[in-house]
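Extended Data, panel c. Modelled sequence:
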Amino acid sequence: MRAQLISGKDVAAEVRQKVAAVVEMCPCVPCLAVVLVGEDPASQVYVRNKIRQTEEVGMRSVHHRLDASTTQADLEAVLEALNQDPDIDGILLQLPLPAGLDEAAAIEKIHPAKDVDGLTEISAGRLIQGKPGLRPCTPTGCVVLAKHALGDDLSGQHVVVIGRSILVGKPAALLFLAENCTVSLAHSRTRDLPGLCREADILVPAVGRPQMVRGDWIKPGACVIDVGINRVPAPDKGEGKTRLVGDVAFEEACDVAGAVTPVPGGVGPMTIACLLQNTVLAAISRRGWSIQTDF
């Protein structure tokens, strides 16, 4: 039997509907500020989608586009101005930054109350300590998709996360741990990685290596949340053409897994949906509104 396809597009649409319903209850319109530095084509596409979807759920979006020659001091000055602007509820610094700019230093300039990407040291510390706060968007989306496939109670599930980045791997491990899962955080030095993966009830590859996880790495019936987005040659489409694939060999996974996310159309749409969710949560928290949410 083929694996259940977990549609990130459909689940993200449900999240956006919930966000739009909460936005309607807000005394004023929440606002997301997006800062884009340079001309990276993929980043420009992501930013356009984020701005469009922010407005579709009824929130306001402002866009600060800086050229690639922007200095660290100028970038940090923009971020500080957004910190001080009372009308801005969330700040998103689109990554990666052009060469020569310090991403970590820039991220730390974002006020934690407006850190809708959940990447500042304070946000990370609150996650580690289990305190309320804004959580990283992509790992949050991974948990939501796993619950969509397996139900809201993930207690006791063995989760194997491949990759230990601060963007996905480490926070994903902590978020699944908060759901009472047993978590293994694998990486390039893990011994017998295929064997460890075969023990996973929920497998979350996030390493950026095209189709690294083969079908025989997957436990029969497991839930596979593929975070990887990799562009590879597609000669069948014509000379010079490419296509997107995940970190999992999708067709092989479908023959073994119980449920699997596609690439594209899996985790990707959830990242923006969770960003919108974080923006309205940031607005509620920093403005002191008494609004109940179910996310």
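The radius of gyration is 19 Å. This feature is highlighted in the accompanying rendering.
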